[in-house]
Amino acid sequence: MSDSRLFKNWDRALLVSLQLPHRSNSEVQSSLDELSSLVYSIGGKVTGQIVQARTQIHPAYYFGKGKLTEIKSRIHIDEVDAVLVDNPLSPKQTQNLEKLLDCEVLDRTQVILDIFAKNARTSEAKLQIGLAQSEYLLPRLVGLWKHLDRERGGIGASRGTGEKQIEKDRQFLRQRITRYKSQLIRVEKERNTQKQRRSNCLQVSLIGYTNAGKSTIMNALTNSGLLVEDRLFATLDSTTRLLEEDSRPKVLLSDTVGFISNLPHEVIAAFRSTLATVRDADLLLQVIDADDNIEEHLQTTSEVLEDLDAACIPIIKVFNKIDRISPTRLLILEKSFPEAVFGSCENGGKNGLEKNSAFVEQLRKQILLFFNERMKTMTIRLDYQHSQKLANIYELSRVDNIDYQEEGILMTLTAIPGNLERLRHHLGSDYTEMR
């Protein structure tokens, strides 16, 4: 099922949302606008939006019966194929709504899973989204068994939707979940091996809302050729590149999956190995679209970092796309975030990168300055008979001064504390540390 799209068999969607007392009008509208963008990104069309304000959720139908009558009327008038609920639904609520409305009903999680399935390119991403979809489907088999039958080529379709068929489906899904988890354990072991090989390097990870411009900034900083598309969740895999070939210690920059409000826990759990590049980073670059809902995006990013146990990692905020906002708005942002970096990084080959070279260079300097401020200096004398250890020294540190004396090679080294400790371990008793 790795790259199948279980849920998208509709073209025209009606968006509906429940506004509870703790949610403001702007929060509800912002979330619906985001859901609209998700729908358009997979080729769907939004026929309209309906919001109901209620003090509590209806346990069986989520919405009140009066609003459901309005929704049913709109389904008929606008020839709607699916109702998309911008809230999480229980399996029973989904079943009840589909029966009452006589229309396919999906919640926000299903739409996001569909987009991830469409955009998954590597085997790891396909495994991760396959696991997330399977775990989402398991408690929803009564209402969604038809999707499973399609994926298996119609196996058992003639037996109907009885308990016997549902139990077979449950067994099929559980086996698939076990298989996916086993394969992902192997992937994680390979990732840990790569992590050990990179332990001498500094790790910087790009984070932020989906479509904020992370991949474009990654390309500009590293001169790499990552795929850049103006759509949600174009990047689902972690990609790592050197920031500068000659820097010591080496700085690695990683781009990974973007965030979104109410990102399903199934997705966060399944993509945990990919998001490990965030958790293991020494520094995070938080890319923010200056022309979007900044407060909500900052809050969403903070929540995901908490889920990943990465909330304590230092962050440099990067406001991108400032050419789309007014000078007054930019001034307000600069006063609110005095330590942030501001600019516009365009995806446009050489012309785009040259136009934004000042922004890119400022960002590069900020990254290197962050690490330079945390460097420690050590002076050592290395005996000539152990000069083969020079390779380790140059690999793990920056050599600020070298003096070939009669007693040995006197060197002043600068490195992050962790690399200095690694140097001491590599050199053993073959050097003298000067005080």
UniProtKB/TrEMBL annotation:
InterPro entries: G_HFLX_dom, GTP-bd, GTP-bd_M, GTPase_HflX, GTPase_HflX_N, GTPase_HflX_N_sf, P-loop_NTPase
Location (main, coarse): cytoplasm
Binding-site list for Mg(2+): S215, T235
Named cofactor requirement(s): Mg(2+)
Cross-referenced Pfam families: GTP-bdg_M, GTP-bdg_N, MMR_HSR1
All residue ranges annotated as the Hflx-type G domain in the record: 202-375
Coiled-coil regions listed: 163-197
Residues that bind GTP: 208-215, 233-237, 255-258, 320-323
Keywords for this protein: Coiled coil, Cytoplasm, GTP-binding, Magnesium, Metal-binding, Nucleotide-binding
GO cellular component: cytoplasm
Subunit record text: Monomer. Associates with the 50S ribosomal subunit.
NCBIfam families according to UniProt: GTP_HflX
Function text: GTPase that associates with the 50S ribosomal subunit and may have a role during protein synthesis or ribosome biogenesis.
HAMAP family reported in the protein's UniProt record: GTPase_HflX
Name of the protein this chain belongs to: GTPase HflX
Source species: SAR324 cluster bacterium
Phylogenetic placement of the source organism: Bacteria, Deltaproteobacteria, SAR324 cluster
